[in-house]
Write a structure and sequence with these properties.
By secondary structure, the chain is of the alpha/beta class. The chain is built from 8 helices and 6 strands; from the N terminus they run H-H-H-H-E-E-H-E-H-E-H-E-E-H.
Length: 198
């Protein structure tokens, strides 16, 4: 445990990093399914190795949400990995916009989300409008696997998942919908290299 404490203290330079390290330490513990008060010497060495690996990845600018495997969106915790974009708070404006337009509408609407990723938009709308039919679409089977896991985690029963390319004219032929929601990646690969990595 002393090695863990030394690594923790030596690497911290500001409060935000301390917060990140506490998350990563919790993640390392979770990976070993240990409680902080029941760490044997041999398992402590394993925990040290996992924690050090997570810290190294964090300093190589791997987002903490990917390292921890989860992210918050609209007060719900979502599973995330490298196959999906990390849910961002600025995406919540899409939810607020739909709420404002339909909060007093008692009709059963059908909504399609294009590029569902983690499923955070569809799942949030599923809870806000449980009588709606929601279609969550993505071209990536790996992303849809994450979205399905999140839907199961949040007990959603009114979402259908579809894999396909929206630029294929036949893809949406068999999906009936009234509303389209989408928050696709909007930064090109060329622009990403100029973005702040912090």
């Amino acid at each position: 445990m002393r090695s863990l404490n030394q690594l923790f203290c030596r690497s911290i330079t500001d409060q935000s990093i301390e917060y990140a390290y506490r998350w990563l330490f919790s993640r390392a513990q979770h990976l070993l399914r240990l409680s902080q008060s029941h760490i044997s010497y041999s398992k402590s060495k394993s925990l040290f190795g996992i924690f050090r690996s997570l810290i190294n990845q964090y300093h190589r600018h791997v987002p903490i949400e990917y390292l921890c495997g989860s992210a918050m969106f609209f007060n719900r915790l979502f599973i995330v990995n490298r196959h999906v974009l990390i849910p961002r708070r600025d995406s919540e404006c899409l939810i607020h916009h739909v709420q404002q337009l339909y909060e007093h509408d008692t009709n059963r609407q059908s909504i399609v989300e294009i590029g569902t990723g983690s499923g955070c938009l569809s799942i949030t709308l599923s809870h806000l409008f449980p009588h709606w039919q929601i279609h969550a679409c993505d071209i990536s089977s790996s992303a849809l696997r994450v979205a399905r896991n999140n839907a199961y985690l949040h007990h959603c029963h009114n979402i259908e998942f579809h894999r396909g390319n929206i630029f294929d004219s036949k893809f949406l032929e068999n999906i009936s919908f009234d509303i389209i929601v989408s928050n696709p990646p909007y930064i090109s690969k060329e622009q990403i290299s100029y973005c702040d990595r912090g």
